[in-house]
Design goal:
Elements lengths: L1 E4 L2 H4 L3 H11 L29 H7 L3 E7 L2 E10 L11 E9 L8 H12 L4 E7 L3 H9 L3 E6 L9 E6 L3
Length: about 170
C-alpha cells in the first residue's frame, strides 16, 4: 500500500479511477452523490438524481486537492479537500476541508482511511481540518473521534428525516 498526496498535474492521472469509484460508491452516500451538484453543496434535503449520474459532482471535485492509496498501480482509496474553505459552519483559518473520502469495498477494514488521515495530519500540522458526514455514518464518525476530531455543528434532519449533517474539526497540533 502506497499513499501519495498528489499535485494538480499528477492527480489527473487518477481521474478515470476516481470517476469509477464515485460511480461504485454513489448509493453509499446520504444523499447519493448523483443527486448532488458539488462536494460543498449546502442544501442536501432537496436533491434529485441527475441524468448524468455523478458526472457533475466529479467535475466539481477536479478543482480540489487529492490524496490516493495505491496497490499495484490501482487506486483503492482517495480523499479530496479544499484549502482555506469557509462557509457558515467553517470559519477557522488556515484550514483544509475534506470533502470526499472513498475506499473501495475490498479495501475496507484494512486501515486505509486511517492511513489517509495520518498522511494529511503530517502535511497540515498548522491547519484546522474540517469535514462533514451524516449522523448514521457510524464507522466514519468512530475514525474521526479516534483521531481527535470534535463535533462543531449538527444540522438536524439536513439529509432527510432523522438524518443529520454533522461537522467535525481537528485543531492544529
Amino acid at each position: 500500500m502506497e499513499i501519495r498526496l498528489l499535485t494538480p498535474e499528477t492527480q489527473k492521472e487518477i481521474y478515470p479511477q476516481v470517476l469509477e469509484m464515485l460511480q461504485e460508491a454513489d448509493a453509499d452516500f446520504v444523499p447519493p452523490l448523483s443527486s448532488r451538484s458539488s462536494a460543498t453543496q449546502q442544501s442536501l434535503t432537496e436533491t434529485k438524481t441527475r441524468s448524468t449520474g455523478v458526472q457533475e459532482y466529479f467535475c466539481q471535485l477536479q478543482a480540489q486537492c487529492f490524496g490516493a492509496v495505491f496497490e499495484e498501480d490501482k487506486v483503492i482509496a482517495f480523499v479530496s479537500w479544499k484549502e482555506d474553505y469557509t462557509c457558515e459552519y467553517i470559519d477557522a483559518l488556515p484550514n483544509i476541508y475534506i470533502s470526499t473520502l472513498i475506499v473501495r469495498p475490498q479495501a475496507r477494514g484494512r486501515g486505509v482511511t486511517t492511513a489517509l488521515y495520518k498522511k494529511l495530519f503530517a502535511r497540515y500540522t498548522d491547519r484546522h481540518i474540517f469535514t462533514r458526514t451524516w449522523s448514521t455514518n457510524f464507522a466514519h464518525i468512530r475514525v474521526l473521534e479516534k483521531y481527535g476530531f470534535v463535533c462543531t455543528n449538527t444540522l438536524p434532519n439536513h439529509r432527510g428525516n432523522g438524518i443529520d449533517t454533522v461537522y467535525f474539526q481537528k485543531s492544529p497540533t
